[in-house]
Amino acid sequence: MNILMHCVYFPPEVGGLESHVYYLCRALAERGHQVDMVTSRSQPGLPDHEIMGGVRVWRTWMPARNAPGWAAHAFFSMPRFGALARSADVLHAQDIASVLPCMVAQRVGKAPIVTTYHTSHFLKRAESPFWRPIFKRFLEAADHNLAASVEIASVGEGIAPDVRVESLTNGVETSFFQRVEPSLPAPAEGRVRLIVPRRLFHKNGVEYFVRAMPLITREIDAEAVLVGDGPERQKLAALAAELGVADRLTFLGARANQEMPGLLSSGDLAIFPSLMEATSIAALEAMSCELPVAASRVGGLPEIVSDAVGGLFEPADPSSLAAKVIELLGGGQLRVLGAEARRRVLDKWSNARLADRHLEIYEELVARRHAA
């Protein structure tokens, strides 16, 4: 089967969407399918064409990392995408900006369209008088719609009541994301280490974690490592100094995906203080590395995080966050919770299971198209 994907970002870009799309494409290629990815030339020096993990990657121009830039990339990627679509069996749009190129290309190649709605960008724009009719048209144009969480699926079906949107939690490459030798030096004797694998943007709620640190360290000898970068870094560092916990926080900045198992294996508990979230790939990756998870009760996080693998706290509430972290650190069950987290990922959210379901969808749509 020839599978043609479109996504605005792809590795070496780092993030949940990028990780999901790469490992899904790689798994499909490993099963003998031809997989082409049309994406953006988002970093200087990236080649226009290369093969990554058996996936043929084609990069086209993108002027900026914002909505106008994504729209421009979608438009200027159409010639390449359309040419590849002539021999494709399935077209798969992996973000909002990818749907229009699929709709245009379908006029040429007639292949069915699958769309996946991943991120909070969809949720934030869903009530907009401008975006809502566009989303309705996109949802109706696809032959099969997927969403990374029940919340996103419900919102999509509210926009287009006659369309079914299947909730399909993103998967983790469990053979890669597993407990390994820690890559960070061990903390001081008796001290526990919290890992916060979050890009430093407002929606990820890292400010509330920093505000919770004085409450946590009052009860527990703890330090934290923040893995990720973003526009709030200086603000957060200044806040940590103001609260007197700068010596307990380490800002590692952005790290390559290949480094994450070693970093996650260096911690005792992972924290996800999001204000808005689909299903967090990063949380699933932490769980796959046998790391218990404490997360905000928002979006798709309650679909994967429970008391059996960690726990939930109220969003934008440092006291609630601190109380949950103190409870988990003092409960003496971190290893048990981490083992259960890994077991659940293997059972429900492995990349192998995700690839299986995608192939079922593709094969059904192709058979339906040939029978028509």
Describe what this molecule looks like in 3D:
The protein has an 8-stranded mixed beta sheet, sandwiched between helices. Strands 11-10-9-12-13-14 form a 6-stranded parallel beta sheet, sandwiched between helices. It has helices at residues 16-30, 67-76, 78-85, 99-109, 120-125, 131-141, 150-159, 206-219, 233-242, 260-264, 281-288, 301-304, 318-329, 334-348, 351-371, and strands spanning 2-6, 34-40, 49-52, 55-60, 90-93, 113-117, 144-147, 165-167, 192-196, 222-227, 249-253, 269-272, 293-296, 310-313. The chain has 372 residues and is α/β, with parallel strands linked by helices. Helix 1 (16-30) links the parallel strand 1 (2-6) and strand 2 (34-40). It has 2 domains: 2-171 and 350-371, Rossmann fold (3-Layer(aba) Sandwich), CATH 3.40.50; 192-348, Glycogen Phosphorylase B (Rossmann fold). Helix content is 43%, strand content 18%. It is elongated and about 65 Å long.
